[in-house]
Write a structure and sequence with these properties.
This protein folds into 3 domains: 146 residues, no CATH class; 63 residues, Dna Ligase, domain 1 (2-Layer Sandwich), CATH 3.30.1490; 109 residues, 2-Layer Sandwich (D-amino Acid Aminotransferase, Chain A, domain 1). Helix content is 27%, strand content 27%. The protein contains 8 helices and 17 strands. Helix 1 runs parallel beside helix 3. 29% of the residues are buried.
């Protein structure tokens, strides 16, 4: 960074719930709108002020060459499809065109339509790096949920994201980081749909060309298992839990795909699983959520696969009783406050 003749500029005041919560985690709840001003410095012979523009407007070349050529401002333009992300449970690695974001002094984010979730995820990471930027609108998809859980230290399977157009070229890196088998999962979907298991390169090259061009996909390490848990959390407590045991599908434990549902007494559910479920719901400040958790059959470690904001409920099960307990608790709290 520049270190002579300091100057400052103001960052837009809008800060969504997740950005605010992350800043409060880092800097304390006493900060209302953290890091409102960013202070830089500049010398007469300083290196250029580096701005990354994602996604660049069509006129960016004209702006750079004709309007900024004497301003000592360096513009790098990129596309949100140039963003790659690796979440390994301990670290977050986000690159743009293969370059670390710390190279830039400011990031101008523009997004619309199907790219809003990636733009929002980019803004969360820039908040973590304390790099000033414009703020895109909030858009939650499964990749953003995974990113937020990684920020919140919720255990998730190792996950890699890049644009669908770049997937084929990234196989050597993906196979190295995740190892076989791994899963390819659509960032928007339900019921186990559009999830594919990759055992080798042949599987990868057979499946990827047929993936939908209008969707985004993550690659995720496959956790060896024979079942997973669906834990219902209401008002900060575990209210119901089940094991979903696949019967016909070779790797998915979704009830919609024929998995057997075994509803459990709460005291049978491992304490570690219950704690992770509660922490996951709290990370998103959800008063009601269904948390899908898988246990590694080899290591015994637990990982959150997904946080469901509208979990399906099986009639005449502990899940419907959980909903009753949740709603009764809401009513009682309301009466107590009256």
């Amino acid at each position: 960074m520049h270190n002579v003749l300091a100057y400052s500029f103001k960052i837009p005041q809008f800060m969504d719930f997740y950005s605010q919560k992350w800043y409060n985690t880092l800097y304390g709840n006493h900060i209302d709108t953290p890091i409102t001003y960013f202070h830089m410095a500049k010398t007469k012979n300083a290196s250029p002020f580096n701005i990354l523009v994602v996604t660049a407007p069509k006129a960016i070349s004209y702006i750079q060459q004709k309007l900024l050529h004497e301003e000592n401002i360096s513009i790098t333009h990129a596309n949100l499809h140039d963003i790659t992300v690796l979440l390994d449970g301990k670290h977050i690695t986000m690159l743009c065109k293969g370059k670390q974001l710390t190279h830039y002094d400011f990031v101008w984010i523009q997004s619309a339509g199907m790219t809003r979730d990636i733009a929002y995820m980019l803004s969360l990471h820039l908040d973590l790096l304390e790099i000033p930027h414009t703020h895109p609108e909030l858009e939650m998809t499964k990749i953003v949920d995974l990113f937020w859980m990684a920020l919140s230290r919720i255990p998730i399977p190792k996950t890699y994201f890049c644009s669908k157009a770049k997937l084929l070229a990234q196989l050597p890196y993906i196979a190295k980081e995740l190892s076989y088998p791994f899963l390819i999962k659509a960032t928007v979907g339900w019921g186990g749909n559009d999830v594919h298991i990759i055992h080798n390169a042949a599987d990868f090259f057979n499946i990827v060309p047929d993936l939908a061009d209008n969707k985004k996909y993550t690659c995720q390490k496959f956790i060896p298992n024979t079942f997973d848990y669906r834990i219902l959390v209401g008002n900060g407590e575990v209210l119901s839990g089940e094991k979903r045991i696949r019967k016909e599908d070779p790797f998915r434990n979704n009830a919609s795909l024929g998995a057997e549902e075994v509803f459990l007494d709460l005291n049978v559910i491992p304490d570690a699983v219950k704690k992770i479920a509660i922490n996951a719901a709290e990370a998103f400040e959800l008063s009601w959520a269904g948390i899908d958790i898988v246990t590694d059959a080899k290591t015994g470690k637990h990982y959150v696969l997904e946080v469901n904001r509208r979990p399906g409920l099986t009639k005449k099960s502990t899940e419907t009783l959980a909903a009753k307990t949740f709603l009764k608790g809401i009513r009682d709290e309301f009466i107590n406050r009256s």
